Amino acid sequence: MVDGAHVTDAQRAVVNAAMIGSQIFEVRFFDRAGREVFDSKGGASWQTGAVYDAAADVAQSGLPSASVEAGGPSNGTPTRYVEIYMPIFDGQGAVLGVAELNVDNSASAAAIGRELGKVSALILLLTFMVIAVPVAGFMRQRAQLRVREAEIRTLTDAAEDARKTLEASIEALPHGFVLYDRNDRLVLCNAQYRHFYPESAHAMRPGVSFETILRAGLAAGEYRDAVGREEDWLAERLIRHKEARGPVYQHLADGRRLQIIERKTQDGGRVGLRIDITDYIESRERAERAEQRLVDAIDALPAGFWLFDEQDRLVMFNEMYRKMYGTSSDLLEIGRTYEDIIRAGLAAGQYPDAAGREDAWLDEVLQNRTNKSYEMVYQLDDGRWVHSLNERTTDGGIVGFRIDITELKQNQLDLEKAATTNSLTGLLNRRGAEIAMQRLVDGLPDDDAEVAFLHIDLDRFKPINDAFGHKFGDMLLSHVGECLRDAAPEGAVIARVGGDEFLVAYGAHRTREDPAQVADSIRNALVRPMHLQGQHVRIGASVGVATWSLGQGDSVSIEDAMQNADIALNVSKTRGRNTVTVFEPAMREASVLTARIADV
Predict the structure, then answer these.
(1) Is 373 helix (H, G, I), strand (E, B) or coil?
(2) 453 and 385 in a common domain
(3) Are 256 and 196 in contact (CB under 8 A)?
(4) Are residues 465 and 560 in the same domain?
(5) 558 touches 548 (CB < 8 A)
(6) In the chain, fewer beta carbons within 10 Å around the N or the C end?
(7) Pair 433, 504: CB distance under 8 Å
(8) Of 145-159, 321-335, 536-550, where does the model show the most confidence?
(9) Does residue 355 sit in the same domain as residue 459?
(10) What is the 3-state secondary structure (H, E, C) of 483-551?
(11) Which residues form the GGDEF domain (predicted)?
């Protein structure tokens, strides 16, 4: 039925005109629910919508009804009238509404019958003007509504399918999923979420607050990292949950480790994931324990250890390394390059071998570092010796060990000294003299620079040694060694080459004195009286002198020059001892002749 608000005054005038000359004084229409939608007497103040049980009953039953009512002038109705309720049907026989006709009952029965005869025509007119036309619009609206209902059902079905797909996807997640609303009440969670928290799963019902679920877990001892500090843990967890920013880590009672990631939703809720990172944590802890064991082992090494990455930056080093390089230990920083560390050590004077040639020494070290492996032996500023062993790693870095070989080096030096030094006098022996003289020759500034050789033989040593004993003789030889060190030019090679024979060699270019004058000075030092163990003794010395230079080439070797000094010494002895003789070529010829005569 049409809404009464849509009944126009024109439609009402047509109905009233149809009733002129009849006993019908009022017509009303009701919808299927018995609500009034039309009244022929309705004025400006008339409002539709009142429900009439009689009309509703007729609409329900589809049968007409009639009753006699009492009226009066005060109601604007006849004293007696008849109310007739007639159902109105559509083309399919369905009730559209109910028409009520009020007929004056003061007339005769024949008159009422005539009036009723007009009813059908009047109903048709009213149905068309008041009901049929509006109902057509209603039917169109109803058809449109059905289309909308179908669309809504389609959308609802799609939404339901999407909801089911979403829930299935959430259930299929390998991680725990949970959603809380803006009031922090549980909306939904998947089975994996409940699986992570079996002791508090019973509390995970829609509408239960996050705090209530947490408290259920706390009461069951579900959070290992909350034991003994439950309230503090709860307060901290609620703060992190409200912030919903960075990850949160939980250690559960069953040993599992969870990473919690929470974010705020647009409507103020919280969505969260619980990721089982137990395997990752255990793997990391195993790796950390293994690394710590490695660090402990490296620190326990009796050698210094360090590791550089492929860009030659310091990665790690042990305490022994820091102790070995005390001067630059404060400069050892993770991330510093090898070159920076070595330069700092050079600036601190840590490498005595590099003194005066720092840049060249550094270039040599860095060049060695380009090799797959290399070794170095060097001395530190505190006197210790270090053996450096370095090997390149598979990833391009370098691992190195620093072994303190000070004791070994000292033993080696002692052995070398014993092999090249006369233990009685502390002077070089013949082997040591040969090595030292080679260094002396290598250091000559030019081909014209000369080396002077002084071959010295003590006079009267044997009688003194026989008279006072070998111990006294040894003391005398030791004293001679001291005299030679005092009298010889600076930097000279001094050696004991026989029982009472000594050799002095030096670069003649270093002193302005003629070698013969130097030899005479030494002879004078040895001829002075000596006081040893209460004994007053006096010896002399015979000296032979020869010189040699690079300019002589292959014509005269160093060995030849030393032999020339020996020949000159023999000449000094034949001249009465305590003399200095400078070699002349004729002396060699005479020596050769003497040797031939001796063979005959």
Answers:
(1) strand
(2) no
(3) yes
(4) yes
(5) yes
(6) C
(7) no
(8) 536-550
(9) no
(10) HHHHHCCCCCEEEECCCCEEEEEEEHHHCCCCHHHHHHHHHHHHHCCEEECCEEECCEEEEEEEEEEHH
(11) 449-585
Rounded distance between C-alpha atoms, residue 2 and residue 142, angstroms:
12
* Model pLDDT for residues 264-286, shown as the tens digit of each residue: 999 999 999 999 999 999 999 99
The answer to whether the beta carbons of residues 362 and 342 sit under 8 Å apart is yes
Domain match, 483 and 565 both: yes
**Beta bridge partners of residue 259, listed in sequence order:** 249, 275
Overall pTM > 0.85: no
By C-alpha distance, which of 327, 367, 332, 369 is closest to 347?
327
What token pair was written down for 520?
A: 């005479």
DSSP character for 393?
Answer: -
User: Considering the domain boundaries, does residue 296 fall inside one?
Assistant: no
Is residue 20 a part of any domain in this protein? yes
Whether residue 171 lies inside any domain: the answer is: no
Say which CATH number the domain at 511 has.
3.30.70.270
Alpha carbon of residue 388 to chain centroid: 31
Tell me the backbone φ, ψ of residue 94, rounded to 5 degrees. -90, 145
553 and 453 together in one domain? yes
Q: Do 323 and 263 share a structural domain?
A: no
**197, 326: one domain:** no
Given its phi and psi angles, is residue 413 left (phi above 0), alpha (psi -120 to 50 degrees) or beta? alpha
The Cα-based distances of 36 to 26, 40, 250, 559 in angstroms read 13, 11, 69, 150
* Beta pairing, strands 314-317 & 304-308: antiparallel
Any idea what the Cα angle at residue 564 is, between residues 562 and 567, rounded to 5°?
115
Domain membership of residue 416 (yes or no) is no
CA-to-CA separations, 67 to 93, 108, 192, 316, in angstroms, rounded: 25, 16, 73, 112
